[in-house]
Structures are given as structure tokens and as C-alpha cells.
Amino acid sequence: MDPLSEEQINKELKELPDWLYSENKIWKKFEFNNFKESLAFIVRVGFEAETQGHHPNIFNVYGQVSIGLQTHDADNQVTQKDIDLAKAIESIMD
């Protein structure tokens, strides 16, 4: 899969609230009331990621979850796979 240009990424991010692009990945920090809520979210993201065959970098500290997306098969650049997974993650939050 081909990497997206920075212009393409920024255009896509307009539809993804609070997602940022830096260091060749898109990422977002999610806030939860406690560890249990953040862990439940991570499990749901994990199931979706497995369905899509695309696996994010996930960091959890108590009630904060940071997710970073980049495509390892595309030399760790952002591709449409990352945008698609970010959109699915947003739907989990709805």
C-alpha cells in the first residue's frame, strides 16, 4: 500500500477530531474516567484492528490511552489503512 502525502493526510484528518499527524504517524489521546474504562476501550480497538488486519501502537496510563497509527509494510508511513482504522476507532467512541 502506498503512503499518503502530507496533504492527503491533513485532508483526511479534518474528518477525524483531535487526531494529529507527526513523526510519520497519526495519533490521538483518549481520556477515560479510570483504568477499567480505558482497558475496555483498548479491547474493543483490538478486536477492530484484528478484523482489519492492522495493528496500532497503544499506550495506556491509568485513564489515558494514546493510539498511534502507521503502516509497517509501507516503511512506517501513513496509508489509507491508518485512516480507515482511525475512523473505526472513532466509531467505537460514539
Give a quick summary of the entry:
By secondary structure, the chain is an alpha+beta fold. It has helices spanning 6-13, 35-52, 80-93; strands at residues 20-22, 25-31, 57-61, 64-69.
What does this protein look like?
With 94 residues, the chain is of the alpha+beta class. The protein has helices at 6-13, 35-52, 80-93; strands at residues 20-22, 25-31, 57-61, 64-69. The chain has a single domain (6-93), classed as Gyrase A, domain 2. The mean pLDDT is 97. The protein is built from three helices and four strands; from the N terminus they run αββαββα. The chain starts with 5 loop residues before the first helix and ends with a helix. α2 packs across α3.
CATH topology: Gyrase A, domain 2
Catalogue the unreliable spans: none
Q: State the helical fraction.
A: 40-55%
Total strand segments? 4
Write out the strand line-up for the largest beta sheet, numbering strands in chain order: 1-2-4-3
Blueprint (SSEs and pairs):
Layout: H1 6-13, E1 20-22, E2 25-31, H2 35-52, E3 57-61, E4 64-69, H3 80-93
Antiparallel strand pairs: 1-2, 2-4, 3-4
Helix pairs in contact: 2-3
List its salient traits:
94 residues, alpha+beta, Gyrase A, domain 2, 4-stranded antiparallel beta sheet, 3 helices, 43% helix, 22% strand
